[in-house]
Predict the 3D structure of the following.
Amino acid sequence: MTTAPVADQLRLLEVQAHDTRLAQLAHRRRKHPTLATLEEFAARSADLERARMETGVVVSDTRRELAKAETDVEQVSARAERDRNRLETGAGSAKDLQALTHELESLGRRQSALEEIELEVMERLETAEGEIAAITSQRQALEADAAKLEEQRDAAFAEIDAEVAAVTEKRRAAAEGIDAALLALYERVRNQTGGLAAVALRGEATEGIQVSLSLTERAAIRDTPPEEVIRSEDGYLLIRVP
């Protein structure tokens, strides 16, 4: 059996009110709507970064492919230019000149094919670079939105933290001087129930939360001295108020 001054028992209700408010504030901080959105933004940003890196590899590979295609075209073009110069000078036998003509025709066909390849690679490079630009733009927009949300979150957290500090001080003042054994019991019950320990009891009805009282409990309450701390069958501390 635990006994404590009636005034101390009544003060537990004030302590409980402050603890309840602190729990609400902690929940509000944990579940602030900006947090879920920021998590979603972070996931989307990570996806965009992966896409940017993958597309960056494509861009690098395609640039190397384009460089090779350009080199191939230049080599064929240079050889064709040399053959044309030799053909224009007329140096060499008729057979040699005929062979040069055939080679120029072959080089022309080869150059056309290589230029088509070069054009196709350039188009693929342009597409990949466009994708990189689009991804970068999306990330920048996402980062701007995230920055605005972070400002909202920080402002909300500052407001919550300020209230937490104020309520914590009020809670400290309310608990100061309360019977140590009663306060220790209160804390144990709070840990067991997940936060609620002291419940106001007016007559035979609880306030704030409905606690069902059996006929046996009601009779015991009526017969219990004011200094005796009442506990319900659920474990709550029932604080009798006028």
Observations:
- Residues 6-240 form a domain with the Helix Hairpins fold (CATH 1.10.287.1490).
- The beta strands are 198-202, 205-207, 230-231, 237-240.
- Residues 94 and 100 are 10 Å apart (CA to CA).
